[in-house]
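User: Please run a holo structure prediction.
Assistant: Happy to. Please share the sequence and the ligand.
User: Here you go; the ligand is guanosine-5'-monophosphate.
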Amino acid sequence: MKGGKLIIFSAPSGSGKTTIVRYLLEQPELNLAFSVSATSRPRRGKEKHKEHYYFMTVSEFKQHIKNDDFLEWEEVYRDNFYGTLKSEVARLWAEGKNVIFDIDVVGGLRIKKKYPKETLAVFVKPPSVDELKIRLKKRSTESDDKINMRIAKASVELATAPQFDKVIKNYDLDVALKEAHQLVAQFVNDPVSDEEE
Ligand code: 5GP
């Protein structure tokens, strides 16, 4: 696959990365398009098929794994698979877009490894694990069990921050948005060198 740039935003659930990604998608000069992931988790609230995720059953997801259709995939929570379809990135690159991802830290780092020069991997850091808990409870789209599962995962994820190209602290949203915009603008305007690694 050849094309534009890949911009990854990874962070523990509730860190505000989705807000940052949405904001960046509204900046026309960045020429970004959102990579819609595939997932086997149930739909939440007003989520739409093909817009927020390609929703599928566990067995459909496993068939795509067998077919080697994924750039990366992960069982993020038990029986809740998430993955980036190769066809999704190919489609957006064919449209001449830079692709932006809102994905799990492990998946983000896998893409960075596959496309080191084309990828900017950004980690969004929440103020604290306690603050994460408050944010997830406010969102109140999930049961306490699910929220606790996400909190447990957050501590593990926070330890991966140094492996990312950049870390943005989301303590103040306006500051984080500005910083994210600057980083991405600079990266999408830098040419990718043609030399092989
Ligand atoms: P949620 O269920 O809240 O939409 O997402 C749960 C977690 O899965 C989040 O950390 C989200 O970033 C991650 N995720 C979403 N899509 C993908 C994907 O394609 N690959 C991987 N590895 N993680 C993903």
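The chain has one domain: 6-188.
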